[in-house]
Design a protein that fits this description.
Strand order of the largest sheet: 1-2-14-5-8-12-13
Number of domains: 1
Order of helices and strands: HEEEEEEEEEEHHEEHEE
Helix content: 10-25%
CATH class: Mainly Beta
Oligomer: single chain
Distance between the termini: 37 Å
Shape: globular
Number of strands: 14
Length: 213
């Protein structure tokens, strides 16, 4: 029994993590209550008590659905309606390091071009206008990187956001359900060392078994 528990612990730490979808931010790719496995090996194995990863098989790519630890070191920091310290999130990568990212009337632009995103959905008929008191570019970038933008502008950045430049070693992530997702628009970029793995396989409920796109 001890050996089985030890083996299971090693597998869970190094290779696979079970994850349950807690909200509707990734609909229709994932529904609330979906259970899936996360491939933790794909982006490298994290050395315990460090930010370093080894044995990296693949790099994070735009379009990957990733599970990551929320980027905050302060348990008292409130985002998305509460403290998210230490929690795991699941979102899709939309911006790579160095990318210029912007939203106009709900449409995503990366480096000036609008990527194809067949997996996204918008559930609201109306779009929020751009905030009238938007700061200069340098201040806007700073507020975004320090997770202050959502606190300052709330839903005014949902549909009209940026432009910002994704910092080196970090990624911008968003939910596929764009009108119902608390994501990088509000609380900034995700450092690579906080990414735990890529969504791999939905195993429950039976009617939704399969690999995500």
């Amino acid at each position: 029994m001890f050996s089985a528990v030890l083996l299971a612990s090693v597998v869970m730490y190094l290779f696979v993590q079970a994850f349950k979808i807690p909200s509707g931010s990734m609909e229709k790719t994932f529904l609330v209550g979906d259970h899936l496995f996360v491939n933790k090996m794909i982006y490298g194995v994290r050395i315990p008590y460090t930010a370093k990863k080894i044995v990296k098989l693949f790099k994070v790519e735009r379009g990957d659905i990733v599970v990551f630890q929320f980027p905050s070191s302060d348990p008292g920091e409130f985002q998305c309606g509460g403290s998210q310290y230490g929690k795991d999130f699941i979102k899709r990568v939309v911006g790579m390091p160095g990318d210029k990212v912007e939203l106009k009337d709900g449409n995503l632009y990366v480096n000036g071009a609008r990527p194809e995103e067949p997996y996204t959905q918008h559930v609201d008929q109306l779009r929020y206008p751009r905030a009238s008191n938007k700061p200069v570019a340098a201040e806007y970038q700073k507020y975004w990187e320090t997770r202050m933008l959502g606190k300052m502008y709330s839903d005014y950045i949902r549909d009209n956001f940026g432009p910002v430049q994704v910092p080196p070693g970090s990624y911008m992530v968003m939910g596929d359900n764009r009108d119902r997702s608390c994501d990088s628009r509000y609380w900034g970029p995700v450092p690579e060392n906080l990414i735990k793995g890529r969504a791999w396989f939905t195993y429950w409920p039976p009617g939704r078994i399969g690999f995500p796109e």
